[in-house]
Amino acid sequence: DIQMTQSPSTLSASVGDRITITCRASQPISTWLAWYQQKPGKAPKLLIYKASTLESGVPSRFSGSGSGTEFTLTISSLQPDDFATYYCQEFNTYTFGQGTSLDIK
Amino acid sequence: QVQLQESGPGLVKPSETLSLTCTVSGGPIRGYYWNWIRQPPGKGLEWIGSVYYRGNSNNNPSLKSRVTLSVDTSKDQFSLKLTSVTPADTAMYFCARDTGDNGLDSWGPGIVVTVSA
Q1: Closest partner residue to B44 among A31, A42, A98, by Cβ?
Q2: In whole angstroms, what is the distance from residue B81 CA to residue B49 CA?
Q3: What is the reported pLDDT for A16?
Q4: B39-50 pLDDT tens trace
Q5: In the A/B pair of chains, how many CB contacts fall below 8 A?
Q6: Residues with Cβ < 8 Å from A94, sequence gap 6 or more?
Q7: Residues A54-89: pLDDT tens digits?
């Protein structure tokens, strides 16, 4: 089984901050990785696929990078709508990371 | 724009079978993999399995042989059956489309299923 480890588990930040969330795979997964945003009671929303491709309609302040075992999601300037939980998912065995809760400082 | 909608019972008794259906509208069911994901209350996302429109499927090994996935292209629906449920199977269940490009791009709103006597 592939394990996906996200860090940090929680992150407090302010509007306008630049933040980075990391996802590490227990074995190489090329660029087979997606990032999602989820708000309470709602379905996840795809932000990034193939590790670095921005999904249509997603603001350009979101970006993804990485390959192999280490991946990052960066939000360049936090907006009020960005406070949510973020998950990575690998597409070898479809395992999700445990999530990163981003809240307002 | 494709839309997905889960349907099924919101309450299932322990040891019985949970059965859910996802209806696809606004886009083709053919050509894609269709997924089920669940989220226990207050916890993270767990992938359950995926089924291709032609019927071949693969499941999360942690659920062993309890999962059966199927597709009905004539109705633009795909389904999940989870046998021998316990309270640990209580969760929000989502259906979602796999783009084939390493991302689940369209999701249903989710359906809450509670396992309780």
Answers
A1: A98
A2: 11
A3: 97
A4: 999 999 999 999
A5: 60
A6: B35, B47, B50, B60
A7: 999 999 999 999 999 999 999 999 999 999 999 999
What tokens does A21 get? 């969330």
Other residues' Cβ atoms within 10 Å of the Cβ of residue B75: 12
Dihedral of the CA atoms A13, A17, A20, A21 (nearest 10)? 30
Residue B97: closest CA among chain A residues belongs to which residue? A46
First-to-final CA distance of chain B: 39
Chain B contact for A17, CB < 8 A? no
Q: What is the pLDDT of residue B99?
A: 84
* A52, A62, A94, best to mutate vs chain B, most B CBs in 10 Å: A94
Distance from CA of B13 to the nearest CA of A (A): 24
pLDDT per residue over B16-26, tens digit each?
999 999 999 99
Residue of B nearest to A89 (CA): B103
pLDDT band at B94 (very low <50, low <70, confident <90, very high): very high
